[in-house]
Q: What sequence folds into this?
């Protein structure tokens, strides 16, 4: 049976400040050749969800995908502006600076 303290600790870890999109951008910026399967494990979502998010980021111009042989490499467009009105005027570069 869980105690009140362990329930409280679990609640603290039920949410995060960044979205999965933000987590994936950070991971691919740190390691442009990382396999999306590995990204999925680190973020805690399915590989299919990561593929969908990468497509969103590529479509938005925040991420570029290139293929070298059998492997994909990703480049984050750091000058891309964040999308939500609250963050208007701030760039991905600023987000990545915070995530070091």
A:
């Amino acid at each position: 049976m869980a105690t009140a303290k362990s329930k409280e600790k679990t609640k603290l870890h039920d949410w995060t400040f960044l979205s999965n999109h933000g987590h994936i951008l950070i991971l691919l910026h740190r390691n442009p050749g990382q396999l999306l399967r590995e990204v999925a494990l680190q973020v805690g979502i399915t590989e299919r969800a990561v593929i969908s998010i990468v497509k969103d980021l590529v479509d938005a111009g925040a991420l570029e995908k290139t293929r070298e042989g059998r492997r994909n490499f990703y480049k984050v467009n750091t000058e891309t502006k964040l999308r939500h009105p609250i963050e208007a005027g701030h760039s991905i570069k600023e987000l990545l600076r915070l995530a070091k």
